[in-house]
Amino acid sequence: MAAGVTRVASHSSFWWGAATAAYQIEGAADEDGRGPSIWDTFCAEPGRVTDGSSGAVACDSYHRWPEDLDLLADLGANAYRFSLAWPRVQPRGQGPVNQAGIGYYDRLLDGLLERGIAPVPTLFHWDLPQALQDAGGWMARETAERFAEYASVVAEALGDRVAAWGTLNEPFVHMALGYAFGTHAPGETLLLDAFAAGHHQLLAHGLATQALRAGPGDAPVMLVNNLTPVRAASTSATDTAAARAYDAFHNRMFLDSVLRGAYPDELGAAVAGAGAVVRDGDLSVIGQPLDLLGVNYYNPTQVKAPGPGSPLPFELVPIEGPAQTGFGWPVVPDGLTELLVGLRDTYGAGLPPIVVTENGCSYPDELSPDGTVDDSDRIAFLDAHIGAVGEARAAGVDVRGYLVWSLLDNFEWAEGYTQRFGLTYVDFSTGRRTPKASYGWLRDRIARGW
Ligand code: BGC
Q1: Where exactly are the structural domains of the chain?
Q2: What is the pLDDT of residues 23-78, one digit of tens each?
């Protein structure tokens, strides 16, 4: 391991850096034996992605990775969260490792260590091999077993150089958008029956945690959750009950299970209706000790009671008042302090140290004729949210890192290339990278430390 790289960021070596995901930046969809993923399939279906685009080329980071790692190094980052494409490593989701595919991550890890940057790979950021989807995807329990095998082969190949493992990225979002509402791949609209896709992802997390720990190295293991403070639209009993139900699906299903070994009672009908999905012993696999908790924060959520006949126990209500990002998401930095302090208050000694594994915003950034990108909105956003992390730390919450989403403008899922989240502007016709004003601002902020 290169000098200056720490396996777990301690208070004295807080992780500062940025995050990306394979399908959103790599491109090279057909190279070196990569198999198709559910996102290749989904993007090919007319009407699924706003601008009809796909991640087939994206930022071309598969070829331009040295330049991307140099961007991280010049930023002063000491950690980089990225994801491994399962279909590159095992093109059909099982069986022998595709050496050319894993070779890419091998080079990436070495490149990070040479630059003194801690590699923090996530094993699954939504790009399931299509062959596994054809066998049921996350609705099938066997997918969790395949995931554990994948974790073992990856641990064997890379475990000696990894600083921390993320198992899954945002299992709630994948369950909700991919399986309940169908706005993401694989496009299923199962509403509450999507619970099984959430449970099998959690089981996969638990099995993979065991597989990673059995492999070389002693890197800490984390689950990366998308978390949101939930607010009831009024103080009425029905709205507050709806808020509790939403909190159970979005947050507590993925926290109580891993930190307490139990699902919250408020999941109610979804769990009761899931029949044989949750088997004896599953929750102890899911609830084994976690080394770190990854927290992705974007905004709070407001909820009211559903209208008559709704199949769901809640209805979302837009938050009016605060400024909005380009995506229309409310900018509420205090929500991050509230979330972090709330986690500590709720889970107490059961809460592992936290890394903020994603936080950021999209704005309609433009490259000006003088070659600069003035994204002062993003600077204000990052400043306020880093401040919110500072507040939580001052209140005694053990936060060990802050990683911006994202290093680069990239393929924003169903929004295609219409939402720019990067610290770096990417011209998608040439691949050319231009650091935005926020990149320079963050470099200075990182240099100051806490
Ligand atoms: C995901 C990213 C995504 C970002 C912005 C997170 O939910 O992990 O992949 O690009 O939000 O939507």
Answers
A1: 15-448
A2: 999 999 999 999 999 999 999 999 999 999 999 999 999 999 999 999 999 999 99
Residue 337 in contact with ligand 1 by CB distance below 6 A: no
Please state whether beta strands 433-435 and 424-426 pair in parallel, antiparallel, or not at all (unpaired): antiparallel
Q: Please, how many CA atoms are within 13 Å of residue 391, restricted to the half-sphere of its CB?
A: 16
| Domain 15-448 part of CATH 1.20.1300.10 | no
> What pLDDT is attached to residue 10?
47
Q: How confident is the model at residue 2 (pLDDT cuts 50, 70, 90)?
A: very low
Q: Which atom of ligand 1 is nearest to the CA of 410?
A: 10
Closest CA to 105 of 150, 168, 148: 150
Which of 287, 385, 291, 404 lies closest to 340, judged by CA? 385
Cis amide bond preceding 364, omega within 30: no
Atom of ligand 1 nearest to the CA of 413: 10
Rounded (10°) angle between helices 437-448 and 376-394: 20
- Compute the distance from residue 202 Cα to the ligand 1 centre, in Å: 19
Question: Is there a contact between 32 and 98 (Cβ–Cβ < 8 Å)?
Answer: yes
- Of 191 and 268, which is predicted with more confidence? 191
Q: Is the peptide bond before 376 cis (omega within 30 degrees of 0)?
A: no
Mean pLDDT of the chain: 96
Q: How far is the CA of 168 from the centre of ligand 1 (A)?
A: 13
Per-residue pLDDT of 109-121, as tens digits, reads 999 999 999 999 9
